């Protein structure tokens, strides 16, 4: 599982950098300031959680079950949270009506929060 987690960390880190550059250079002239800030929020959270995946993949005291749970929560969070933000921020360019994504973004955020909570409780459970 470590290879899968670390590969996902690399993928989300790489695409976060590419999307950040695209937002800063390619979208700057075509999006409003608010939409660009929204897009950048998606990039930030994707990068934070790419680093979280890197930690999960490299932190050997985590059990295999815990790693799998964290991996799933983080990947789902990136897809739902950052993915929906990217689509919502660029809807003026795509012309897509994406009202359904409004409720999806917080579900992704909840996945992130649950992943961090699971990690915290796993550390609190450990005997010193």
Automatic annotation (TrEMBL):
Membrane spanning stretches: 5-25, 45-62, 69-88, 100-124
Main subcellular location: membrane
Similarity remark: Belongs to the UPF0382 family.
Membrane topology: Multi-pass membrane protein
UniProt keyword Transmembrane, yes or no: yes
Native source organism of the sequence: Flavobacterium fontis
GO cellular component entries: plasma membrane
Pfam families found in the cross-reference section: DUF423
Record's subcellular location: Membrane
UniProtKB keywords: Membrane, Transmembrane, Transmembrane helix
Protein name: Uncharacterized membrane protein YgdD, TMEM256/DUF423 family
């Amino acid at each position: 599982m470590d290879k899968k987690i670390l590969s996902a960390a690399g993928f989300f880190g790489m695409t976060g950098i590419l999307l950040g550059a695209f937002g800063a250079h390619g979208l700057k002239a075509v999006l409003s300031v608010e939409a660009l800030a929204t897009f950048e929020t998606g990039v930030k959270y994707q990068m934070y959680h790419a680093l979280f995946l890197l930690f999960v993949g490299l932190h050997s005291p985590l059990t295999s079950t815990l790693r799998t749970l964290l991996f799933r929560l983080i990947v789902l969070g990136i897809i739902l949270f950052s993915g929906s933000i990217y689509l919502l921020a660029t809807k003026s360019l795509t012309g897509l009506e994406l009202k359904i994504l409004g409720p999806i973004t917080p579900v992704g955020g909840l996945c992130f929060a649950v992943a961090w909570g699971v990690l915290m409780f796993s550390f609190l459970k450990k005997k010193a």
